Amino acid sequence: MERTLSIIKPDAVERNLIGKILNRLESEGFRIIAMKMVHLTQEQAQGFYAEHQGKPFFDDLVKYMTSAPVVVSVLEKENAIKNYRTLMGKTNPEEADEGTLRKEFALSKTQNCVHGSDSPESAAREIAYFFADSEICPRAE
Ligand code: CMP
Fold first, then answer.
1. Which of 15, 46, 69, 91 could in theory staple to 39 by disulfide, Cβ–Cβ 3.0 to 4.6 A?
2. For residues 64 and 45, what is the distance between their CA atoms, to the nearest angstrom?
3. Residue 131 and residue 30: Cα distance in Å, rounded?
4. With bands split at pLDDT 50, 70 and 90, how would you rate the model's confidence at 141?
5. Does the CB atom of residue 112 touch ligand 1 within 6 A?
6. Cα pseudo-dihedral 109, 111, 112, 114, rounded to 10
7. By C-alpha distance, which of 141, 139, 136 is closest to 4?
8. Binding site as annotated, residues for ATP
9. How many angstroms is it from 52 CA to the middle of ligand 1?
10. pTM listed for this prediction
11. Selecting from 3.30.70.580, 2.40.30.10, 3.40.910.10, 3.30.70.141, what CATH number does the domain 2-131 have?
12. pLDDT digit string (tens) for 83-95?
């Protein structure tokens, strides 16, 4: 079993899409083993996206990620990282495949409804960024 970090981003929270997105995740066999709603501070958003600091879209990304609450969760599944990225679709919704979350729900490259970790190293860092070990609730098969 592998773990990944999912964020339902401000544009999706604001449009009442939390339930629809969680429903898709559970239908696709992801187990939600931790979850919280957070209104990120500027410092939290900058720290989370530290690898993008200096890129042209960074300031807009931080402004957007702090514009409304997000729903952060830890998902567990075989190959969770790759499978969740496939379910999300490409960053740019115009390039995302049919049936992906971003094709269905995203508004733009920035307002793209969901985030998922891109590697095991990122998943470990991102999960620890939001959750203490005691907040993660692994379940029996
Ligand atoms: P996410 O998967 O959360 O990781 C980094 C985020 O930066 C990405 O989703 C997008 O929301 C945003 N992003 C990445 N590339 C661009 C871009 N070229 N223009 C605007 N936003 C971008």
1. 69
2. 9
3. 18
4. low
5. yes
6. 140
7. 136
8. 9, 57, 85, 91, 102, 112
9. 9
10. 0.96
11. 3.30.70.141
12. 999 999 999 999 9
Per DSSP, helices labelled H in the chain are 10-14, 18-27, 42-48, 58-65, 80-88, 101-105, 120-130
CA 5/CA 60 separation, integer angstroms: 22
Please report, in angstroms and rounded to a whole number, the separation of the first and last CA atoms in the chain: 10
Laid out side by side, the sheet with 2-8 consists of: 31-38, 70-77, 2-8, 114-116
Tokens of residue 106, six digits: 């995203």
Q: Which residues are catalytic?
A: 115
Ligand 1 atom, smallest distance to 9 CA: 3
